[in-house]
Write a sequence for this structure.
């Protein structure tokens, strides 16, 4: 027998929570676990521009021929414009190459395989805390993982001194993974000045920066959110980027992401990218078309792009409004603790400061589901559940 000795793997801490929520029977249940956007009605909508583009695609599509290994060319070009901005020198000089990927996760896995097989890097520095899959992906390719401090529990802010102290130990050739914006799980991003300092430090020390950009447009805007990446591009000739369009295009189950490699010049970029294509060929050969073709159509059509940008601003606005209301309602329900820090955080997540025991109590006694680290998905808060949620939180504090 081959399989009878296999141990059961533990459930994924975040996806497992979704399963438990589905099975929950109490009607008052509230899901603040998995990171998906929800509108005021608690639904995860398909953006208007996506619906229009999909309808057009369906009518126009006349073949299901394979895509190339790196996917839809127009999509890859549009991705570079979102990342670098229009008319960036990198685009003009063809120093970047992009491959469509299976979501941001797929891009990260390509990055990890590429780093492991084609560079001398042995160590990757990952923020503590981080999205748990970061550690798992780099572990899967056999890299050494070191963590750098990120979150100060007392100030509910960036532990800047801890971060600098830890990253000072990162050596030339080490990979440093950075969250492009809307740090998951803390919602805390470096300030522009801090980004500038980190970019300079990276260039001086000779790190290979890897940007995980899963929430572009969810903090302050598409251009604003690229500040950190663009600060790095000014001084770091080589860099890797993972993009995800799961959240900002609402295309979660279409698995739409991109891996981008920036090199010193076009010739090196092409050479390195040929190895990226070899990696993709052995992983899944070539990607699926639908999601990427949808994104490409939106980003190439002025009206659709404008409507998408508008809807993204609406999503961002709703989350910011909910942050404000959440803090106000907690106060109104009698919370004596200061929760004002929640208003300053970016993106969907907030590190609420709730302990694992308090999170357990919320689930057991009130059918409110959150990640045990205290991370809550602010987009899961609606006018309908906010009062119940805040009353329950105050009871477990
Ligand atoms: N990186 C971060 C920080 C994330 O939060 C997520 C998704 O939650 C991803 C990457 C992966 O995104 P995708 O669903 O596109 O694979």
């Amino acid at each position: 027998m081959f399989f009878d000795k296999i141990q059961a793997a533990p459930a994924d801490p975040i996806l497992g929570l979704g399963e438990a929520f589905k099975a929950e029977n109490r009607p008052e249940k509230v899901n603040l676990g998995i990171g998906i956007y929800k509108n005021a009605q608690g639904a995860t909508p398909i953006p208007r521009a996506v619906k229009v583009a999909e309808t057009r695609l369906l009518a126009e599509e006349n073949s299901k021929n394979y895509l190339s290994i790196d996917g839809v060319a127009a999509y890859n070009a549009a991705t570079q414009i979102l990342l670098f901005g229009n008319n960036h020198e990198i685009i003009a000089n063809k120093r970047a190459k992009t491959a469509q990927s299976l979501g941001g996760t797929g891009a990260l896995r390509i990055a990890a395989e590429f780093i492991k097989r084609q560079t001398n890097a042995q160590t990757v520095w990952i923020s503590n805390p981080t999205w748990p899959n970061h550690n798992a992906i780099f572990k899967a390719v056999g890299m050494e993982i070191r963590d750098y401090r990120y979150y100060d529990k007392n100030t509910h802010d960036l532990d800047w001194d801890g971060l600098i102290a830890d990253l000072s130990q990162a050596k030339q050739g080490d990979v440093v993974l950075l969250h492009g914006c809307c740090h998951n799980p803390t919602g805390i991003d470096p300030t522009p000045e801090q980004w500038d300092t980190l970019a300079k430090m990276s260039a001086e020390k000779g790190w290979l920066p890897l940007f995980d950009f899963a929430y572009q447009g969810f903090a302050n805007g598409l251009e604003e959110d690229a500040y950190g990446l663009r600060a790095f591009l000014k001084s770091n000739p080589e860099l890797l980027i993972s993009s995800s369009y799961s959240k900002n295009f609402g295309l979660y189950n279409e698995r739409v992401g991109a891996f981008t490699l920036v090199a010193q010049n076009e010739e090196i970029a092409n050479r390195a990218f040929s190895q990226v294509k070899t990696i993709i060929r052995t992983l899944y050969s070539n990607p699926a078309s639908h999601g990427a073709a949808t994104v490409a159509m939106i980003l190439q059509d002025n009206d659709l792009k404008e409507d998408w940008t508008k809807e993204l601003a609406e999503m961002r606005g709703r989350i910011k409004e909910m942050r404000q209301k959440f803090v106000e309602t907690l106060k109104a329900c009698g919370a004596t603790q200061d929760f004002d820090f929640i208003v300053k955080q970016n993106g969907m997540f907030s590190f609420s400061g709730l302990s694992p025991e308090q999170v357990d109590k919320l689930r057991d006694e009130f059918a409110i589901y959150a990640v045990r680290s205290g991370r809550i998905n602010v987009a899961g808060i609606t006018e309908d559940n906010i009062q119940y949620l805040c009353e329950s939180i105050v009871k477990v504090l």
About this structure: The chain has 15 helices and 13 strands. The CA atoms of residues 192 and 228 lie 7 Å apart.
